[in-house]
Amino acid sequence: MSDDAAHMAAALALARRGLGRTWPNPSVGCVIARDGWVLARGRTADGGRPHAEASALAAAREAGSGDALRGATAYVTLEPCSHHGHTPPCANALVEAGVTRVVVATGDPDSRVAGRGLARLRAAGIDVLEGVGRAEADEINAGFFMRVRAGRPLIALKTATSLDGRIATATGDSKWITGPAARAEGHLLRATHDAIMVGIGTVRADDPELTCRLPGLGDRSPIRVILDSRARLRVDSKLALDARGTPVWLLCGEGVSNRRITTLSRAGVDVRLVPVGTDGRVDIATACRDLGEAGLTRVLVEGGGKLAASLLAAGLVDRIVAFRGGVVIGGDGLPSVASMRIAELGSAPRFERVSSRVVGDDTLETWARRA
């Protein structure tokens, strides 16, 4: 592996660490090196600022390596920003630090950047190399790119099914279809997403917490988003009782009574009004756009079958993360996806397998929506 590839691999690893923690900004990693030595590393801080480049430059100066920045190479997983926002442009910061070379994995489609960051670097005489680690950087930034280009977050549908595609028995028993290793992997997924989304049916049936309960990652629990057209969430549910600790956003219909909204709001639930379709359910496309406007970039959908069907039918599922356990439940079990009324196979949503691996006694497959 070349030095460029090795340093960029380290920067990409830093970027992955920030997934689920930096929205509304992308999670970016930066490594600064000179003469084969790493001077500093940085990633986008929780909450989105300071940016990765600023963090790495500050770390270098704090370590007494500020003078060594002149002539150094910066490895950045996303094009440095070039606009003034809450922080100064990172492209300017790199120029002022005196780096002579910048290696960038992928470009930033944000109209405020979109090539301007690279142009600023080149105008200052800095040698710019693009495309090192692009495929991985594009996947890390897929949620941010989706929000910039489509105005909504990337939607990942997580399923945990039997061999015959069921999520529970006819009586609703679902503990446990998959084993401990798969469940731990599921909690890690929660930690790398900005939010978890479920329907009110799942909440009423299971009274879930929807938190990340892996040791050492208790502070990585994402926002809990509930689609609940009639605001039926109970104030004594686990979600409502913990709403002041880990945020709960409830998306309900505009016709819900003010009294009900006030009751939930006093419990700490963030109630957000969205249109309701003729079927009486929250308009799923509008809900996703609202989540994008709120800054969310990556949303993990965990249930249930009706919500999964609505998202798939609307063409809003970008990834499917499918856990499969070695049990057969039968046709009277609950399907992972409710009826979609598909008459011809040609009109069914199509996905391409990205990865497949064994997790404990179960399998985990990741699928991406076919372009």
Explain what this protein looks like in three dimensions.
This protein has about 375 residues and is α/β, with parallel strands linked by helices. The protein has helices at about 5-15, 50-60, 90-95, 115-125, 135-140, 140-150, 180-190, 200-205, 240, 260-265, 285-295, 305-315, and strands at about 30-35, 35-45, 75, 100-105, 125-130, 155-160, 165-170, 195-200, 225, 250-255, 270-275, 300-305, 320-325, 335, 350-360, 360-370. Helix 10 (about 260-265) links the parallel strand 10 (about 250-255) and strand 11. About 45% of the residues are buried. The mean pLDDT is about 95.
What topology emerges from the helices and strands here?
Blueprint: H1 3-17, E1 29-34, E2 37-43, H2 52-62, E3 73-76, H3 90-97, E4 101-104, H4 116-123, E5 127-130, H5 134-140, H6 142-150, E6 154-161, E7 166-168, H7 180-191, E8 195-199, H8 200-206, E9 223-227, H9 238-241, E10 248-253, H10 258-266, E11 270-274, H11 284-293, E12 298-303, H12 305-313, E13 319-324, E14 334-335, E15 351-359, E16 362-369
Parallel strand pairs: 3-4, 4-5, 6-12, 6-13, 8-9, 8-12, 9-10, 10-11
Antiparallel strand pairs: 1-2, 1-3, 7-14, 13-16, 15-16
